[in-house]
Amino acid sequence: MCRDNYSVNRYYYSMSGSGNIMIKCIVVICSFYTGSSIELYNPDRITVFDPKNLNNPNMIGDKWIWGYENTSEAVIEDDHKPFDISEALADNEQHENPCAPHHPATPNFSKPCRRISQTKCLEYIWELKVRDERAKRSDACVKYFDKHPDSEYTPPLGIIGGAATEKGEYPHMGAIGWLAPSGSWIFKCGSTLISPKFVLTAAHCSRASDRDDSIADPVPKIVRLGDKNIVVSDYGPFPVDGNILNIIVHPNYTAPKKYDDIALFELEWPIIFSSDIQPGCLWNNFDVSSLGTKATLTGWGVIDTLGRNVSPELLAGTVDLVDQEKCNNLLLPNCNRNWCGLKETQLCAGKNAGGVDACQGDSGGPLQVKMDLPIKDQGQMHYIIGVTSFGIGCALPNLPGVYTRVSAYLDWIEPIVWGQ
Known about the structure:
Blueprint: H1 8-16, E1 24-25, E2 37-42, E3 45-49, H2 51-54, H3 116-147, E4 173-179, E5 185-195, E6 198-201, E7 222-225, E8 240-249, E9 263-267, E10 281-282, E11 294-299, E12 303-304, E13 315-323, H4 324-331, E14 346-350, E15 366-370, E16 382-390, E17 401-405, H5 410-418
Parallel strand pairs: 10-16
Antiparallel strand pairs: 1-13, 2-3, 4-5, 4-7, 5-6, 5-12, 6-9, 7-8, 8-9, 11-13, 11-15, 13-14, 14-17, 15-16, 16-17
């Protein structure tokens, strides 16, 4: 019999009745460009700065809290066992002729008591491994064919003289686009590809303000995937724009409150995975301590494809996972009618000294931890532990960002995305 690790009432009440709870948590933050400059000092530091704005006491008000009560959602009980991905990395049977087609059958990774999101994660890792095998076999095929020109198999077209494209460091990242009156796209939120047809984002990204005259329709229309630069250019790879078919907001979310801030966007057509576009894996455990003490946040901020003031390149910053009780104590002085204390469905991340943070416009993007895989040439894969929800100001000292805890919502996500 499977142990019930996902009982809402048993876990939630045992937590809420225990008094002093010490848990590690994570936060996701958003960013709508307000005139401050965004500077990338190094690959793991995002600095959002404008001394006039950052020291402005008005930033600690409702209008500067980016993100949106109901605590009935399931919180996953952690069994403290790290997720074993080794079976997805097992060797596949290969033909001795490297020019022979390589289409191994997908293994069945389903097991009793294994969640569908874990099964899918193993499938995604296995697909990455197969792409890596094909790439290596293609290289070997050219050399083999030179020595065996009468081989029944020939090198695939395009293999000779081809140049490898730059592989995405965060290939699950998607930018959510609204149509501008001019016909261009304005990107106000981030998202995470989690299956061929679904991205995960924040609920408050499901609709912009009706008073926003920079867009033609408050409902987003596309998700842009496959490129660190979200502006289509004449130089470099073209991204893939997936039309949004359906927007599914968590049933307990009520704007402008900042709880249950999570949504799924269904795309019109399945996305084909590659080294530049592939899904992230949903972290299954409530506890994230086995992943370490740091996580990475990523985002573009608000980018208008016709604008010139902000770089459209994806920025990344490393932040510390902040203890739940400590985070609550830091943020509670800003209690208001829309948010007044952390729930177990939320987590925090940031820097005590400030200076590294997401800001307005990065909402909906992931808080993630890189998976340590032996395959290095087929794009990176990450565990997604949080969805950027809200923060108080941007990059201010002792004010970590708040993220929606992904593991708390698996019972809602899995039936929608994978039908189980």
